[in-house]
Amino acid sequence: MAISPEGEVTAAEPQAATGRTKKRRTQAERSAATRESVVRAATECIAELGFSNATMSRIAERAGVTWGAMQHQFGDKDAIIEAVIDRSLDELASRMDGLREAEPELRRRIHAFTERAWVIFEGPVYRAILYIVLHRRENTERIASVCTRLWTEIFGDLALPEEQQFAAMRFTFVMLSGIATESAVLPGVEPSKDHFEVIESTLLGLLGGRKSEE
Question: Which among 5, 59, 144, 160 would be 20 to 30 A from 73, CA to CA?
Answer without folding.
Answer: 144
